[in-house]
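Quick one:
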Amino acid sequence: MKSVSGASLFFIAGLMSLQLNGQLSFQNDTLKIQEVVITRKQISSEQPGFKFYSIDSARLNDYPLFSLSEVLNETTPLFIKYYGSGGTATSSFRGTSAGHTQVTWNGININDPMLGQSDFSLLPSGMIDNVMISFGGASMDLGNGAIGGIINLENEPYWKKQTLIVAVPGEGSFGRYSGLVKVSTGSDHFQSVTKGYLNSSRNDFPYLDTEAVPEPLWKKRENNQILQKGFMQELYLRKSENVLSARFWYQSASRDLPGSTLYGYSGEKQSDESLRSLISYDIVKGKKEYFSTAAWMFTNLNYTSQLYSIDSRNKANTLVLKGGMTTPLGKYSRLKIVLSDELNAIESNNYNESVRHNNASVTLSAERKKGKRFGAVILLRETLDDKSFLVPDFSAGFEFRVIRGEEHFLKLNLSRNSRIPSMNDRFWNPGGNPELKNEYAYSYEIGYKLDHQISHSVTLSSELDYFNNYIRDMIQWRPGESYFWVADNIGSVNSSGFESSLSVKYLLNNLSVNLNAGYSYTRAREINNGVSETAGKQLIYIPENQANSSLHVAYKNFYTTLVTNFTGRTYTTADNSGFLQGYTINNFTSGMKFNFKENFIDLRFKIENIFDTSYKTIAYYPQPGRTYFLILSLHLKK
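Output:
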């Protein structure tokens, strides 16, 4: 690692920062809990019978200068595919593809309408306050078409009369410099939050080229530079329980793409630019809640390749209107109605002409909780795809407290969910297919969840879930009769498996110990495709076995974290003859916090891939070996 210069750190500190909401997770002193109002009420509830996973601000503060892909990879059972360090990163829920994962920002879909997916390497975790992950059918409460699940990025105000300034500069291996800045100020009725972000890296790491002949050779990854910038402004106005909010988020990224180790560099470059704006108004009248949102988003993606004379220019404008209400139905039930309309307008030199597409839906859901033992919910959605009504989708969940007075729950859910093809699936030239049918999936899940206080200082949490997804009219790009690939509905896919997690927390005086572990098994295969060579084979880039664990130990102002991730064999060919070997990655973080009354400095050192393991998540795209980071967090309160 290049030595970390103090001058560089203070220079970045003057330009950047990060958000830090509340106290850090390792602090054991008495905490003064600030009032929090979640301004999007329809994104905060966990429906009975479904699986949710939350990454709160305290956990996100452990990754202040990292992308969301790195947070998800270390803390969830999702499989994250990387095209190398700094390259595109996509997720896979329970054996589904990246297109079956929807990313929302405060309840509004921000997936690229052309690709139908999101690049997690372009989403800095420091710009977000909380992350709520909805698995399988749980996603239908918030969005359409997320057969795998939804990852919702949330921003929240802290209603307190104060000014908070947080600056986080950092420096790491392979020419990486990063920084975040957050300035929040306001009162009990008005809050303003400003955030800025910068990340620059050469990414010139050494790697072992296992395809070299006659024997593997160590080489250096070249033409892999990246520069990312981002800015977010949040404004909140509160009167009584009603909240008016406005959020604006601008990002840009410029990347050199080194290409695969098989074919080498072809002069590839990509620039991404996005502007997202969102205005919402939440009203509470007695026991009724009303919410409305208007959002406009713009994305601009340019890709060039000198070798292949490609100059791809793509612009997308998206307008979203969303609103609804929640009202009680008697003593134990409530009804929610949500209306949503999304209009996409695309201009691309890869389409024959400019294209517009409108998607509207109405969703009705009823939830009932009787006493402290039973909970149930049912949801029905009708979708209008341009001028065509789809077969209605639905979901239903049931939850039962097994032991009276104890946090032991049996959960069960069933759903039907439809996914509309992306704009590229339909209109890309050549290969797009305007006649594509919508995908749809039947899914069910059964699980058991418990939270148990073993003693005054020890708490145990655990969850075990079995899931099964049956996807029909699966959309795939395959070689056509000519030289290019085409999009088509071919075959069906069945994915099933189970996920397990265990968490043990120990807290006594100035010592805290948190142990978390998880394991997931996923069997995903294509069925009824008429090809014997691939019948019953595991889908490519879906590992059957994954496991992760983390141990966090804190004593007074010192803390240490060890994270271990295991990914099993991943197949790269449909007949399973080609594969990537499984690998285990260990990351280590240690730090110390220095308190100055209400202000503090947090200095931490992180090592990723401690044992310098050579591995890939995508064939011919190597990942970096041992990597070092030094991060300084400055927290000032007035």
